[in-house]
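ARCHIVE CARD
CATEGORY: sequence design from structure
SOURCE FIELD: tokenized fold
FIELD CONTENT:
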């Protein structure tokens, strides 16, 4: 319970720690709706005796597969409890039991899960319970799942081996199948307006996300795809239809991030010397779409811990729903930057004070074993698989050379998920970039499980940045040379945090 209260404290305290002047001026008039509580009870808990915690995942407004996570213990009597801040209704996930929960701010929701029958989910409480009971009925009746990192909604495995006409036919057929099953469900079941609108929106938005992703893969190989002007017209049509209310799910943010903005970049060129805000204002079909584009871009700045970039973009945002969502994520990000010890202690299994002497960890905690010996230096731990992220590794190796080969001030090490028979080839690639074998570690099975469970490795390379006190101050797929890593290292050489 202590660990849970600690994490809740991070989220709660984030409501009050705002230091970015222009941002706070923008949001002073925002009215927040309050805290949301989710309580639960586990039936037949002994069926999975090693399951001690419940995880709630809050998808990022950036549309990326990077998430905020709150963990709470399952108490001895089978109960669990979350309390967290939501500025607006939004989608969350309770992994792995509920892949979609639509929560209402200030509401309470009670969930009962049967470990002996994981399909038996019971919901009670206020508005959230009503909405989610309808969603559960819909998902069960149609077999549909929205596009978060566990499910892919609309899609096809016929990308490279089919003609464009065949690809389009398969995608259309799958979308139409979901459409028809949804209509059959609605003819027999009365649901809330939120469920009726969002279930239609998710199918259409997921379809175009899959369509654009497929086009991108084929474009890279110079294969036939559809006309870009026709595609942009379709994207504008669907965006105008489904971005006209305050009912939004994660599919909306993913659509902007992975479909609308990439196609718009191609259709109306966005170069490095063009301001993104000006480009979005000129490109977007409606004011709401423009605000979504700015929100997603500001969300990506938060993932990169780029508060200056966030401030420049967010100050142009006018949409009340998005302002609230954006500020919620900003506060959490800023609090974590101000208090990196919170997350670091959870990952490393030891108290941040007197770190090197008091840390406690099992043999599988590879991160603690790698970080402790280099206490006193700024550290970078690059985690990758085979040669996924090869270009970024080369950039990282070049960057490290700027700090000297003796590793006096900055130390870099590498963790690589590669099968035993292929490791020598991987090592040779590291050697070609001046990386000594002693700096590369191939994790054991237990270490790999620990890393995946602890860091939620969704994309490689995944990099960890550690300050001189041995505290993890940043980690994820955006801790890379191409995302201001050198600026962060230089800042940590002067102080202990990434926020000035």
């Amino acid at each position: 319970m202590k660990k849970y209260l600690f994490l809740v404290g991070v989220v709660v305290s984030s409501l009050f720690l705002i230091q970015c002047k222009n941002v706070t001026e923008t949001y002073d008039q925002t009215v927040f709706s309050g805290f949301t509580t989710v309580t639960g009870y586990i039936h037949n808990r002994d069926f999975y005796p090693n399951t001690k915690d419940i995880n709630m995942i809050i998808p990022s407004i950036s549309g990326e597969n990077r998430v905020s996570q709150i963990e709470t213990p399952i108490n001895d009597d089978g109960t669990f409890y979350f309390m967290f801040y939501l500025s607006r209704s939004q989608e969350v996930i309770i992994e792995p039991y509920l892949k979609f929960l639509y929560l209402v701010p200030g509401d309470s929701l009670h969930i009962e899960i049967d470990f002996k029958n994981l399909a038996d989910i019971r919901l009670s409480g206020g508005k959230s319970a009503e909405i989610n009971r309808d969603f559960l009925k819909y998902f069960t009746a149609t077999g549909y799942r929205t596009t978060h990192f566990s499910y892919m909604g609309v899609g096809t495995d016929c990308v490279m081996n089919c003609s464009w006409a065949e690809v389009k036919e398969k995608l259309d057929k799958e979308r139409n199948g979901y459409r028809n099953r949804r209509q059959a469900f609605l003819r027999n079941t009365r649901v809330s307006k939120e469920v009726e609108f969002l279930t239609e929106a998710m199918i259409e938005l997921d379809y175009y996300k899959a369509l654009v992703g497929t086009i991108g893969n084929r474009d890279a190989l110079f294969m036939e795809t559809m006309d870009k002007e026709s595609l942009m017209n379709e994207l504008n049509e669907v965006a105008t239809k489904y971005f006209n209310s305050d009912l939004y799910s994660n599919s909306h943010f993913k659509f902007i991030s992975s479909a609308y903005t990439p196609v718009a970049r191609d259709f109306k060129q966005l170069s490095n010397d063009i301001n993104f805000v000006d480009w979005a204002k000129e490109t977007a079909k409606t004011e709401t779409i423009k605000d979504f584009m700015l929100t997603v871009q500001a969300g990506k700045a938060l993932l990169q811990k780029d508060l200056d970039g966030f401030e420049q973009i967010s100050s142009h945002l006018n949409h009340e729903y998005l302002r609230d969502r954006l500020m919620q994520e900003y506060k959490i990000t800023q609090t974590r930057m101000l208090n990196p010890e919170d997350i670091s202690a959870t990952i490393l299994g030891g108290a941040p004070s007197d770190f090197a002497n008091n840390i406690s960890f099992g043999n599988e905690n590879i991160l603690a074993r790698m970080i402790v010996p280099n206490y006193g230096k700024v550290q970078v731990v690059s985690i990758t698989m085979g040669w996924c992220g090869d270009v970024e590794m080369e950039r990282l190796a070049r960057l490290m050379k700027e700090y000297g080969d003796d590793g006096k001030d900055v130390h870099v090490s590498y963790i690589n998920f590669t099968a035993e028979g292929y490791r020598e080839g991987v090592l040779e690639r590291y050697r070609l970039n001046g990386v000594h074998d002693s700096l590369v570690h191939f994790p054991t099975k237990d270490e790999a499980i620990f890393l995946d469970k602890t860091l939620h490795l969704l994309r490689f390379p995944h990099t960890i940045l550690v300050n001189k006190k041995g505290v993890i101050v940043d980690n994820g797929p955006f801790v890379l040379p191409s995302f201001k890593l050198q600026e962060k290292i230089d800042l940590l050489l002067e102080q202990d945090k990434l926020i000035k």
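CARD ANNOTATION: The domain at 31-142 is CATH 2.60.40 (Immunoglobulin-like). The chain is about 45% helix and 15% strand.
SHELF: design records, drawer C
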